[in-house]
Write a structure and sequence with these properties.
The complex is a heterodimer. Chain A is built from 4 helices and 6 strands, in the order αβαβββββαα. By secondary structure, chain A is α+β, with helices and mostly antiparallel strands. Chain A has a 5-stranded antiparallel β-sheet. Chain A has one domain. Chain A has helices at residues 2-9, 18-25, 107-110, 134-155, and strands at residues 15-17, 33-38, 50-56, 59-70, 75-82, 88-96. Chain A is 27% helix and 29% strand. The relative contact order of chain A is 0.15. In chain A, a hairpin with a 4-residue loop joins β4 (59-70) and β5 (75-82). Chain B is mainly β. Chain B is built from 4 helices and 19 strands. Chain B is 11% helix and 52% strand. Chain B has one domain: Beta Barrel (Porin), CATH 2.40.160. The chains are: A alpha+beta, B mainly beta. Chains A and B meet through α1, β1, α2, β2 and β4 of A and α1, β1, β5, β6 and β7 of B.
Chain lengths: 157, 384
Protein backbone atom coordinates (compact mmCIF):
# COMPACT_ATOMS: atom_id res chain seq x y z
CA UNK A 1 0.00 0.00 0.00
CA UNK A 2 2.76 2.42 0.97
CA UNK A 3 4.57 1.60 -2.23
CA UNK A 4 1.45 2.44 -4.22
CA UNK A 5 1.05 5.70 -2.33
CA UNK A 6 4.67 6.58 -2.97
CA UNK A 7 4.07 6.10 -6.69
CA UNK A 8 0.93 8.22 -6.59
CA UNK A 9 2.81 11.22 -5.32
CA UNK A 10 6.13 10.83 -7.05
CA UNK A 11 5.76 13.18 -9.94
CA UNK A 12 9.24 13.00 -11.43
CA UNK A 13 8.27 9.77 -13.15
CA UNK A 14 7.39 11.74 -16.28
CA UNK A 15 10.78 13.30 -16.62
CA UNK A 16 13.10 11.38 -18.85
CA UNK A 17 16.56 11.25 -17.32
CA UNK A 18 18.89 10.66 -20.25
CA UNK A 19 22.05 10.57 -18.16
CA UNK A 20 20.61 7.82 -16.03
CA UNK A 21 19.47 5.92 -19.11
CA UNK A 22 22.87 6.11 -20.80
CA UNK A 23 24.89 5.36 -17.69
CA UNK A 24 22.80 2.23 -17.24
CA UNK A 25 23.02 1.32 -20.90
CA UNK A 26 26.79 1.86 -21.05
CA UNK A 27 27.35 0.44 -17.57
CA UNK A 28 29.27 3.49 -16.53
CA UNK A 29 29.07 6.05 -13.78
CA UNK A 30 26.48 8.82 -14.16
CA UNK A 31 29.29 11.36 -13.76
CA UNK A 32 30.93 10.01 -16.92
CA UNK A 33 27.91 10.78 -19.07
CA UNK A 34 26.81 14.16 -20.26
CA UNK A 35 24.43 15.37 -22.90
CA UNK A 36 24.48 18.73 -24.57
CA UNK A 37 21.26 19.93 -26.10
CA UNK A 38 21.54 21.50 -29.53
CA UNK A 39 19.26 22.70 -32.28
CA UNK A 40 20.11 21.42 -35.74
CA UNK A 41 20.61 24.27 -38.17
CA UNK A 42 17.62 23.24 -40.25
CA UNK A 43 15.71 22.83 -36.98
CA UNK A 44 12.22 23.99 -37.90
CA UNK A 45 11.37 20.74 -39.65
CA UNK A 46 11.94 18.71 -36.53
CA UNK A 47 8.89 19.81 -34.55
CA UNK A 48 9.00 18.81 -30.91
CA UNK A 49 11.97 16.47 -31.18
CA UNK A 50 14.95 17.16 -28.96
CA UNK A 51 18.58 16.79 -29.99
CA UNK A 52 21.61 16.11 -27.87
CA UNK A 53 25.29 15.46 -28.32
CA UNK A 54 26.37 12.58 -26.15
CA UNK A 55 29.70 12.64 -24.32
CA UNK A 56 31.05 9.68 -22.40
CA UNK A 57 34.17 10.37 -20.34
CA UNK A 58 34.39 13.66 -22.23
CA UNK A 59 34.63 11.82 -25.53
CA UNK A 60 32.00 12.70 -28.16
CA UNK A 61 29.94 9.57 -28.83
CA UNK A 62 27.41 10.80 -31.36
CA UNK A 63 23.91 12.24 -31.40
CA UNK A 64 20.83 11.39 -29.37
CA UNK A 65 17.35 12.29 -30.55
CA UNK A 66 14.39 12.15 -28.20
CA UNK A 67 11.22 11.79 -30.21
CA UNK A 68 7.63 10.62 -30.08
CA UNK A 69 5.35 8.40 -32.16
CA UNK A 70 1.75 7.29 -31.82
CA UNK A 71 0.57 3.80 -30.94
CA UNK A 72 -2.99 2.54 -30.87
CA UNK A 73 -4.13 4.50 -27.85
CA UNK A 74 -1.30 6.75 -27.03
CA UNK A 75 1.89 8.54 -27.87
CA UNK A 76 5.13 6.99 -26.72
CA UNK A 77 8.58 8.52 -26.32
CA UNK A 78 11.76 6.91 -27.51
CA UNK A 79 15.34 7.83 -28.14
CA UNK A 80 17.61 7.14 -31.06
CA UNK A 81 21.34 7.19 -30.49
CA UNK A 82 23.45 7.72 -33.61
CA UNK A 83 27.17 7.14 -33.83
CA UNK A 84 29.31 10.04 -35.00
CA UNK A 85 29.14 8.39 -38.45
CA UNK A 86 25.31 8.67 -38.31
CA UNK A 87 24.35 5.06 -38.01
CA UNK A 88 21.92 3.92 -35.33
CA UNK A 89 23.62 2.50 -32.25
CA UNK A 90 20.57 2.16 -30.03
CA UNK A 91 16.84 2.67 -30.04
CA UNK A 92 15.19 2.70 -26.65
CA UNK A 93 11.59 3.33 -25.65
CA UNK A 94 11.73 5.59 -22.64
CA UNK A 95 8.05 6.14 -21.95
CA UNK A 96 5.14 3.96 -23.05
CA UNK A 97 1.93 4.68 -21.16
CA UNK A 98 -0.56 2.35 -22.77
CA UNK A 99 -0.05 -1.41 -22.62
CA UNK A 100 -1.44 -1.86 -26.13
CA UNK A 101 1.52 -2.37 -28.44
CA UNK A 102 4.13 -2.03 -25.71
CA UNK A 103 5.86 -5.12 -27.14
CA UNK A 104 7.88 -2.72 -29.26
CA UNK A 105 9.78 -1.58 -26.19
CA UNK A 106 11.44 -5.02 -26.02
CA UNK A 107 15.21 -4.73 -26.28
CA UNK A 108 15.56 -7.68 -28.66
CA UNK A 109 13.03 -6.34 -31.13
CA UNK A 110 14.63 -2.88 -31.13
CA UNK A 111 18.03 -4.39 -31.88
CA UNK A 112 16.87 -4.65 -35.49
CA UNK A 113 17.44 -0.94 -35.93
CA UNK A 114 21.10 -1.10 -34.89
CA UNK A 115 23.34 -0.19 -37.80
CA UNK A 116 20.56 1.52 -39.73
CA UNK A 117 21.81 4.54 -41.60
CA UNK A 118 19.04 5.78 -43.81
CA UNK A 119 17.65 3.47 -46.49
CA UNK A 120 13.96 2.87 -47.07
CA UNK A 121 12.53 0.85 -44.18
CA UNK A 122 9.49 -1.34 -44.70
CA UNK A 123 7.79 -2.67 -41.62
CA UNK A 124 7.15 -6.39 -41.98
CA UNK A 125 9.97 -6.76 -44.50
CA UNK A 126 13.09 -4.91 -43.41
CA UNK A 127 11.82 -4.74 -39.87
CA UNK A 128 10.34 -7.89 -38.46
CA UNK A 129 6.64 -7.36 -37.61
CA UNK A 130 5.56 -7.97 -34.05
CA UNK A 131 2.22 -9.52 -33.13
CA UNK A 132 -0.25 -7.26 -31.40
CA UNK A 133 1.85 -4.15 -31.94
CA UNK A 134 1.37 -3.34 -35.62
CA UNK A 135 0.46 0.32 -35.17
CA UNK A 136 3.28 1.06 -32.72
CA UNK A 137 5.71 -1.03 -34.77
CA UNK A 138 4.92 0.85 -37.96
CA UNK A 139 4.97 4.20 -36.19
CA UNK A 140 8.40 3.73 -34.64
CA UNK A 141 9.80 2.34 -37.91
CA UNK A 142 8.66 5.27 -40.02
CA UNK A 143 9.72 7.78 -37.38
CA UNK A 144 13.24 6.34 -37.28
CA UNK A 145 13.40 6.49 -41.06
CA UNK A 146 12.14 10.07 -41.09
CA UNK A 147 14.43 11.39 -38.36
CA UNK A 148 17.48 9.63 -39.77
CA UNK A 149 16.84 11.07 -43.22
CA UNK A 150 16.32 14.61 -41.97
CA UNK A 151 19.19 14.56 -39.53
CA UNK A 152 21.61 13.27 -42.14
CA UNK A 153 20.64 16.00 -44.57
CA UNK A 154 20.85 18.57 -41.84
CA UNK A 155 24.16 17.54 -40.37
CA UNK A 156 25.57 16.83 -43.80
CA UNK A 157 27.00 13.40 -43.27
CA UNK B 1 24.33 29.77 8.15
CA UNK B 2 27.16 29.10 5.76
CA UNK B 3 26.26 25.40 5.89
CA UNK B 4 22.68 26.15 4.93
CA UNK B 5 23.84 28.37 2.09
CA UNK B 6 26.18 25.66 0.80
CA UNK B 7 23.37 23.13 0.99
CA UNK B 8 21.09 25.45 -0.93
CA UNK B 9 23.70 26.02 -3.60
CA UNK B 10 24.29 22.30 -3.78
CA UNK B 11 20.56 21.62 -4.12
CA UNK B 12 20.24 24.28 -6.77
CA UNK B 13 23.15 22.76 -8.67
CA UNK B 14 21.48 19.37 -8.41
CA UNK B 15 18.24 20.80 -9.71
CA UNK B 16 20.01 22.48 -12.60
CA UNK B 17 21.82 19.26 -13.38
CA UNK B 18 18.48 17.51 -13.49
CA UNK B 19 16.90 20.12 -15.67
CA UNK B 20 19.73 19.81 -18.18
CA UNK B 21 19.75 16.05 -18.32
CA UNK B 22 16.07 15.29 -18.17
CA UNK B 23 13.38 16.04 -20.58
CA UNK B 24 9.79 16.68 -19.69
CA UNK B 25 7.65 15.52 -22.56
CA UNK B 26 4.55 17.66 -22.65
CA UNK B 27 1.34 16.59 -24.33
CA UNK B 28 -0.05 18.77 -27.07
CA UNK B 29 -3.78 19.31 -26.94
CA UNK B 30 -4.25 17.26 -30.11
CA UNK B 31 -2.50 14.39 -28.39
CA UNK B 32 -5.11 14.16 -25.65
CA UNK B 33 -8.06 12.80 -27.58
CA UNK B 34 -7.85 9.71 -29.71
CA UNK B 35 -10.65 8.25 -31.76
CA UNK B 36 -10.74 4.91 -33.46
CA UNK B 37 -13.11 2.16 -34.28
CA UNK B 38 -13.77 -1.07 -36.06
CA UNK B 39 -16.56 -2.76 -37.94
CA UNK B 40 -17.37 -6.22 -39.14
CA UNK B 41 -20.02 -6.80 -41.80
CA UNK B 42 -20.68 -10.44 -42.63
CA UNK B 43 -22.55 -12.63 -45.04
CA UNK B 44 -22.91 -16.23 -43.83
CA UNK B 45 -24.37 -18.83 -46.17
CA UNK B 46 -24.88 -22.44 -45.19
CA UNK B 47 -24.77 -24.72 -48.19
CA UNK B 48 -26.06 -28.23 -48.57
CA UNK B 49 -26.77 -30.53 -51.51
CA UNK B 50 -30.35 -31.25 -50.46
CA UNK B 51 -31.64 -28.45 -48.27
CA UNK B 52 -32.09 -24.81 -49.09
CA UNK B 53 -30.83 -22.32 -46.52
CA UNK B 54 -31.31 -18.59 -46.32
CA UNK B 55 -28.12 -16.65 -45.91
CA UNK B 56 -27.62 -14.08 -43.19
CA UNK B 57 -26.27 -10.63 -43.89
CA UNK B 58 -25.36 -8.75 -40.80
CA UNK B 59 -23.65 -5.64 -39.60
CA UNK B 60 -22.19 -7.83 -36.93
CA UNK B 61 -20.28 -5.21 -35.03
CA UNK B 62 -19.74 -1.50 -35.28
CA UNK B 63 -17.52 -0.11 -32.56
CA UNK B 64 -16.34 3.39 -31.74
CA UNK B 65 -13.25 3.76 -29.59
CA UNK B 66 -12.60 6.99 -27.73
CA UNK B 67 -9.57 7.59 -25.57
CA UNK B 68 -8.85 10.68 -23.54
CA UNK B 69 -5.59 11.44 -21.85
CA UNK B 70 -6.12 13.76 -18.91
CA UNK B 71 -2.43 14.11 -18.16
CA UNK B 72 0.78 12.16 -18.68
CA UNK B 73 -0.38 9.53 -16.23
CA UNK B 74 -4.14 9.33 -16.52
CA UNK B 75 -6.15 7.96 -19.42
CA UNK B 76 -9.69 6.82 -20.04
CA UNK B 77 -10.48 4.41 -22.83
CA UNK B 78 -13.87 3.21 -23.94
CA UNK B 79 -15.33 1.22 -26.79
CA UNK B 80 -19.00 1.63 -27.58
CA UNK B 81 -20.41 -1.19 -29.60
CA UNK B 82 -23.51 -1.68 -31.68
CA UNK B 83 -24.07 -5.37 -32.42
CA UNK B 84 -26.40 -6.57 -35.16
CA UNK B 85 -27.42 -2.92 -35.70
CA UNK B 86 -29.74 -2.86 -32.68
CA UNK B 87 -27.94 -4.03 -29.56
CA UNK B 88 -25.85 -1.42 -27.82
CA UNK B 89 -23.01 -2.46 -25.52
CA UNK B 90 -20.04 -0.97 -23.80
CA UNK B 91 -17.20 -3.25 -24.77
CA UNK B 92 -14.64 -1.71 -22.49
CA UNK B 93 -14.47 1.42 -20.36
CA UNK B 94 -11.59 1.86 -18.00
CA UNK B 95 -9.41 4.37 -16.28
CA UNK B 96 -5.70 3.78 -16.51
CA UNK B 97 -3.21 5.39 -14.17
CA UNK B 98 0.52 5.16 -14.78
CA UNK B 99 2.14 4.47 -11.43
CA UNK B 100 5.59 4.35 -12.95
CA UNK B 101 7.10 3.52 -16.31
CA UNK B 102 5.91 0.02 -17.14
CA UNK B 103 3.34 -0.25 -14.32
CA UNK B 104 -0.25 0.91 -14.64
CA UNK B 105 -3.26 0.62 -12.39
CA UNK B 106 -6.48 -0.01 -14.26
CA UNK B 107 -10.11 0.00 -13.12
CA UNK B 108 -13.44 -0.21 -14.89
CA UNK B 109 -14.93 -2.52 -17.48
CA UNK B 110 -12.00 -4.64 -18.67
CA UNK B 111 -11.42 -7.25 -21.34
CA UNK B 112 -10.43 -10.56 -19.78
CA UNK B 113 -6.96 -11.46 -21.06
CA UNK B 114 -7.59 -15.06 -22.13
CA UNK B 115 -6.15 -16.34 -25.39
CA UNK B 116 -5.51 -14.08 -28.37
CA UNK B 117 -8.85 -12.94 -29.76
CA UNK B 118 -10.68 -11.77 -26.65
CA UNK B 119 -8.37 -8.80 -26.30
CA UNK B 120 -7.32 -8.38 -29.93
CA UNK B 121 -10.58 -8.90 -31.77
CA UNK B 122 -10.60 -6.20 -34.43
CA UNK B 123 -11.41 -7.87 -37.77
CA UNK B 124 -8.31 -6.49 -39.45
CA UNK B 125 -6.14 -8.39 -36.97
CA UNK B 126 -7.34 -11.93 -37.68
CA UNK B 127 -7.82 -14.26 -40.62
CA UNK B 128 -11.31 -15.44 -41.50
CA UNK B 129 -14.64 -13.62 -41.58
CA UNK B 130 -15.63 -14.88 -38.14
CA UNK B 131 -13.51 -15.15 -35.01
CA UNK B 132 -12.28 -18.67 -34.27
CA UNK B 133 -15.13 -20.80 -32.91
CA UNK B 134 -13.06 -21.80 -29.91
CA UNK B 135 -13.09 -18.10 -29.01
CA UNK B 136 -16.84 -18.13 -29.09
CA UNK B 137 -17.77 -21.35 -27.35
CA UNK B 138 -14.99 -22.01 -24.90
CA UNK B 139 -13.87 -18.43 -24.39
CA UNK B 140 -17.02 -16.31 -24.66
CA UNK B 141 -15.61 -13.37 -26.62
CA UNK B 142 -16.00 -10.54 -26.08
CA UNK B 143 -15.57 -11.49 -22.42
CA UNK B 144 -15.39 -8.42 -20.21
CA UNK B 145 -15.95 -7.78 -16.54
CA UNK B 146 -15.88 -4.88 -14.14
CA UNK B 147 -12.80 -4.99 -11.98
CA UNK B 148 -9.42 -3.52 -11.18
CA UNK B 149 -5.78 -4.48 -11.25
CA UNK B 150 -2.39 -3.90 -12.76
CA UNK B 151 -0.88 -4.01 -16.21
CA UNK B 152 2.79 -3.67 -16.83
CA UNK B 153 5.97 -4.84 -18.41
CA UNK B 154 9.30 -5.86 -17.00
CA UNK B 155 11.87 -3.38 -18.28
CA UNK B 156 12.73 -3.93 -21.92
CA UNK B 157 12.81 -7.72 -21.57
CA UNK B 158 9.72 -8.18 -23.76
CA UNK B 159 7.70 -9.51 -20.83
CA UNK B 160 4.22 -8.07 -20.27
CA UNK B 161 1.72 -8.90 -17.57
CA UNK B 162 -1.83 -8.19 -16.49
CA UNK B 163 -3.47 -9.09 -13.20
CA UNK B 164 -7.03 -8.17 -12.26
CA UNK B 165 -9.65 -8.89 -9.66
CA UNK B 166 -12.95 -8.97 -11.50
CA UNK B 167 -16.58 -9.91 -11.31
CA UNK B 168 -17.49 -13.28 -12.85
CA UNK B 169 -20.10 -15.12 -14.89
CA UNK B 170 -23.68 -15.22 -13.63
CA UNK B 171 -24.74 -18.85 -13.30
CA UNK B 172 -28.16 -18.38 -11.73
CA UNK B 173 -30.77 -15.61 -11.77
CA UNK B 174 -33.95 -17.52 -10.95
CA UNK B 175 -33.03 -20.20 -13.43
CA UNK B 176 -29.73 -21.71 -14.55
CA UNK B 177 -27.85 -19.81 -17.25
CA UNK B 178 -24.84 -21.97 -18.04
CA UNK B 179 -25.20 -25.03 -20.26
CA UNK B 180 -23.18 -27.62 -22.11
CA UNK B 181 -23.52 -26.32 -25.65
CA UNK B 182 -21.92 -22.93 -25.12
CA UNK B 183 -20.51 -23.22 -21.59
CA UNK B 184 -20.18 -19.74 -20.05
CA UNK B 185 -21.48 -17.65 -22.93
CA UNK B 186 -24.94 -16.97 -21.50
CA UNK B 187 -23.44 -16.08 -18.14
CA UNK B 188 -21.67 -12.97 -19.39
CA UNK B 189 -22.95 -9.96 -17.49
CA UNK B 190 -21.20 -7.42 -19.70
CA UNK B 191 -21.04 -4.88 -16.92
CA UNK B 192 -24.81 -4.24 -17.11
CA UNK B 193 -26.09 -4.03 -13.50
CA UNK B 194 -23.99 -7.11 -12.98
CA UNK B 195 -24.52 -9.19 -9.87
CA UNK B 196 -21.49 -9.72 -7.69
CA UNK B 197 -21.21 -12.45 -5.08
CA UNK B 198 -17.71 -13.90 -5.63
CA UNK B 199 -14.50 -12.17 -6.72
CA UNK B 200 -12.54 -13.75 -9.58
CA UNK B 201 -8.91 -13.46 -10.59
CA UNK B 202 -7.66 -12.99 -14.14
CA UNK B 203 -4.08 -12.77 -15.33
CA UNK B 204 -1.88 -13.06 -18.37
CA UNK B 205 1.84 -13.06 -19.07
CA UNK B 206 3.10 -12.43 -22.60
CA UNK B 207 6.63 -12.76 -23.86
CA UNK B 208 7.86 -11.25 -27.11
CA UNK B 209 11.60 -11.32 -26.44
CA UNK B 210 12.29 -14.02 -29.03
CA UNK B 211 12.45 -12.76 -32.59
CA UNK B 212 9.21 -13.24 -34.59
CA UNK B 213 7.53 -15.14 -31.76
CA UNK B 214 5.03 -14.10 -29.16
CA UNK B 215 3.95 -16.40 -26.36
CA UNK B 216 1.06 -16.00 -23.96
CA UNK B 217 0.01 -17.73 -20.78
CA UNK B 218 -3.40 -16.80 -19.37
CA UNK B 219 -5.24 -17.90 -16.30
CA UNK B 220 -8.65 -17.28 -14.80
CA UNK B 221 -9.71 -18.50 -11.37
CA UNK B 222 -12.91 -18.02 -9.48
CA UNK B 223 -16.54 -18.79 -8.92
CA UNK B 224 -19.69 -17.81 -10.74
CA UNK B 225 -22.23 -15.39 -9.31
CA UNK B 226 -25.77 -16.16 -8.19
CA UNK B 227 -28.82 -14.12 -7.20
CA UNK B 228 -29.58 -16.67 -4.47
CA UNK B 229 -27.05 -15.15 -2.05
CA UNK B 230 -28.93 -11.88 -1.94
CA UNK B 231 -30.78 -11.20 1.29
CA UNK B 232 -30.21 -14.54 3.00
CA UNK B 233 -29.42 -14.83 6.68
CA UNK B 234 -25.67 -15.34 7.14
CA UNK B 235 -26.36 -18.08 9.69
CA UNK B 236 -28.89 -19.94 7.60
CA UNK B 237 -26.75 -22.88 6.48
CA UNK B 238 -29.58 -24.43 4.51
CA UNK B 239 -30.14 -21.37 2.30
CA UNK B 240 -26.41 -20.92 1.88
CA UNK B 241 -26.14 -24.55 0.77
CA UNK B 242 -28.92 -23.98 -1.76
CA UNK B 243 -27.15 -20.87 -3.09
CA UNK B 244 -23.88 -22.82 -3.24
CA UNK B 245 -25.59 -25.34 -5.53
CA UNK B 246 -26.24 -22.55 -8.02
CA UNK B 247 -22.60 -21.60 -8.54
CA UNK B 248 -19.72 -23.19 -10.37
CA UNK B 249 -16.01 -22.96 -9.69
CA UNK B 250 -13.89 -22.16 -12.73
CA UNK B 251 -10.16 -22.57 -13.32
CA UNK B 252 -9.14 -21.86 -16.88
CA UNK B 253 -5.73 -21.72 -18.47
CA UNK B 254 -4.74 -20.60 -21.93
CA UNK B 255 -1.55 -20.95 -23.91
CA UNK B 256 -1.07 -19.12 -27.16
CA UNK B 257 1.61 -18.36 -29.68
CA UNK B 258 1.95 -16.14 -32.72
CA UNK B 259 4.82 -16.41 -35.15
CA UNK B 260 5.40 -13.90 -37.94
CA UNK B 261 8.24 -14.29 -40.38
CA UNK B 262 8.84 -13.38 -44.01
CA UNK B 263 5.18 -13.28 -44.93
CA UNK B 264 4.30 -16.41 -42.98
CA UNK B 265 2.05 -16.17 -39.99
CA UNK B 266 1.28 -19.02 -37.67
CA UNK B 267 -0.83 -18.89 -34.59
CA UNK B 268 -2.23 -21.33 -32.15
CA UNK B 269 -4.07 -21.49 -28.90
CA UNK B 270 -4.84 -24.10 -26.28
CA UNK B 271 -7.40 -23.76 -23.50
CA UNK B 272 -8.39 -26.01 -20.68
CA UNK B 273 -11.02 -25.28 -18.08
CA UNK B 274 -11.83 -27.27 -15.01
CA UNK B 275 -15.34 -26.60 -13.71
CA UNK B 276 -16.19 -27.52 -10.13
CA UNK B 277 -19.59 -28.37 -8.66
CA UNK B 278 -21.18 -29.30 -12.00
CA UNK B 279 -22.97 -32.37 -10.64
CA UNK B 280 -24.81 -30.28 -8.04
CA UNK B 281 -25.38 -27.37 -10.40
CA UNK B 282 -26.71 -29.50 -13.23
CA UNK B 283 -29.15 -31.21 -10.90
CA UNK B 284 -30.19 -28.00 -9.19
CA UNK B 285 -30.65 -25.96 -12.36
CA UNK B 286 -31.50 -28.80 -14.76
CA UNK B 287 -28.48 -28.06 -16.94
CA UNK B 288 -25.73 -30.05 -18.64
CA UNK B 289 -22.47 -28.22 -17.93
CA UNK B 290 -19.32 -30.21 -18.53
CA UNK B 291 -16.83 -30.56 -15.67
CA UNK B 292 -13.87 -29.96 -18.00
CA UNK B 293 -13.60 -28.09 -21.29
CA UNK B 294 -10.73 -28.40 -23.73
CA UNK B 295 -9.95 -26.79 -27.02
CA UNK B 296 -7.19 -25.73 -29.34
CA UNK B 297 -6.62 -24.31 -32.80
CA UNK B 298 -3.76 -23.99 -35.20
CA UNK B 299 -3.65 -21.57 -38.10
CA UNK B 300 -1.24 -20.88 -40.93
CA UNK B 301 -1.31 -18.04 -43.43
CA UNK B 302 1.01 -16.54 -45.99
CA UNK B 303 1.03 -13.00 -47.31
CA UNK B 304 1.44 -13.29 -51.09
CA UNK B 305 2.32 -9.59 -51.34
CA UNK B 306 4.93 -9.87 -48.63
CA UNK B 307 7.88 -8.75 -50.70
CA UNK B 308 6.00 -5.99 -52.51
CA UNK B 309 4.20 -3.71 -50.13
CA UNK B 310 4.03 -2.93 -46.46
CA UNK B 311 0.38 -1.96 -46.31
CA UNK B 312 -1.37 -4.25 -48.74
CA UNK B 313 -1.70 -7.93 -47.97
CA UNK B 314 -3.23 -10.90 -49.71
CA UNK B 315 -3.34 -13.75 -47.23
CA UNK B 316 -4.66 -17.24 -47.91
CA UNK B 317 -4.97 -19.20 -44.69
CA UNK B 318 -6.22 -22.39 -43.15
CA UNK B 319 -7.29 -23.04 -39.56
CA UNK B 320 -8.05 -26.24 -37.75
CA UNK B 321 -10.01 -26.12 -34.49
CA UNK B 322 -10.94 -28.77 -31.99
CA UNK B 323 -12.97 -27.92 -28.93
CA UNK B 324 -15.09 -29.93 -26.56
CA UNK B 325 -17.35 -28.44 -23.89
CA UNK B 326 -17.98 -31.95 -22.55
CA UNK B 327 -14.36 -33.03 -22.39
CA UNK B 328 -15.25 -34.37 -18.95
CA UNK B 329 -18.64 -34.64 -17.31
CA UNK B 330 -19.73 -35.43 -13.78
CA UNK B 331 -23.04 -37.20 -13.13
CA UNK B 332 -24.41 -36.66 -16.65
CA UNK B 333 -23.65 -38.42 -19.89
CA UNK B 334 -21.34 -36.87 -22.46
CA UNK B 335 -22.96 -35.17 -25.41
CA UNK B 336 -20.71 -36.02 -28.33
CA UNK B 337 -22.19 -33.17 -30.36
CA UNK B 338 -20.27 -30.80 -28.13
CA UNK B 339 -17.00 -32.21 -29.37
CA UNK B 340 -16.32 -30.06 -32.44
CA UNK B 341 -13.78 -30.24 -35.24
CA UNK B 342 -13.85 -27.26 -37.60
CA UNK B 343 -11.77 -26.43 -40.63
CA UNK B 344 -11.74 -22.93 -42.09
CA UNK B 345 -9.92 -22.04 -45.30
CA UNK B 346 -10.03 -18.74 -47.07
CA UNK B 347 -8.36 -15.57 -48.13
CA UNK B 348 -8.16 -11.98 -46.97
CA UNK B 349 -7.28 -8.97 -49.06
CA UNK B 350 -5.99 -6.06 -47.01
CA UNK B 351 -6.27 -2.95 -49.17
CA UNK B 352 -4.69 -1.04 -46.34
CA UNK B 353 -3.59 -2.01 -42.86
CA UNK B 354 -7.06 -1.47 -41.43
CA UNK B 355 -9.31 -2.32 -44.40
CA UNK B 356 -9.92 -5.90 -45.44
CA UNK B 357 -12.24 -8.00 -47.59
CA UNK B 358 -12.48 -11.63 -46.54
CA UNK B 359 -13.85 -14.85 -47.99
CA UNK B 360 -13.74 -18.32 -46.55
CA UNK B 361 -15.35 -21.73 -46.37
CA UNK B 362 -15.97 -23.54 -43.11
CA UNK B 363 -16.56 -27.22 -42.57
CA UNK B 364 -18.13 -27.44 -39.15
CA UNK B 365 -18.24 -30.94 -37.74
CA UNK B 366 -18.77 -32.73 -34.45
CA UNK B 367 -18.73 -36.24 -33.10
CA UNK B 368 -22.54 -36.49 -33.35
CA UNK B 369 -24.30 -38.37 -36.13
CA UNK B 370 -25.22 -35.19 -38.08
CA UNK B 371 -23.45 -34.34 -41.28
CA UNK B 372 -20.77 -31.69 -41.37
CA UNK B 373 -22.16 -28.23 -42.05
CA UNK B 374 -20.53 -26.35 -44.88
CA UNK B 375 -20.72 -22.59 -44.72
CA UNK B 376 -19.45 -19.85 -46.97
CA UNK B 377 -18.61 -16.51 -45.39
CA UNK B 378 -17.88 -13.17 -46.98
CA UNK B 379 -16.97 -10.18 -44.93
CA UNK B 380 -15.82 -6.60 -44.71
CA UNK B 381 -13.52 -5.64 -41.88
CA UNK B 382 -12.29 -2.20 -40.97
CA UNK B 383 -10.14 -0.87 -38.16
CA UNK B 384 -8.81 2.63 -37.65
Amino acid sequence: MLVVLAFLFADEANAIDLVKIFSKELKTDQADVSLQKFIPECGDDFGTNEFFKLYVKKQWEGYVVLTRAKGRHDYFDFLIWYSSGMSVKLVKVVSYSSDHGSEISGKNWLLQFAGYSGNKLIYGKDIQAISGATISGKAITSKIEEITGKLKTCIGN
Amino acid sequence: MRKILYSLVFMLAQLMAISQNTSERILNSEEKLSIGGYAQIDYNQKIDGETKYNGIMDVHRMVLMVGYKFNERTRFITELEVEHVQEVYVEQAFLDYKLKEGLNFRAGLLLIPMGIINELHEPATFNGVERPNLDNTLIPTTWREIGAGFTGRIGDSGLKYQLYVVNGFLSYNGSGLLRGSDAFRRGRQKGAESIFSNPNLSGKIEYSGISSLKLGLSTYLGKSQSTLYDGIDKDNQQLIAVADSSVLGLSMIGLDFRYLKKGWNFKGQFNYASVKNTDEYNEFAAKDMGSALLGYYLEAGYNLLHSKDADKKLVPFVRYEKYDTHYKVDGISKNVKFNHSDVTAGIGWWMAEGAVLKADVQWLGNDGPDDTITQINLGVGIWF
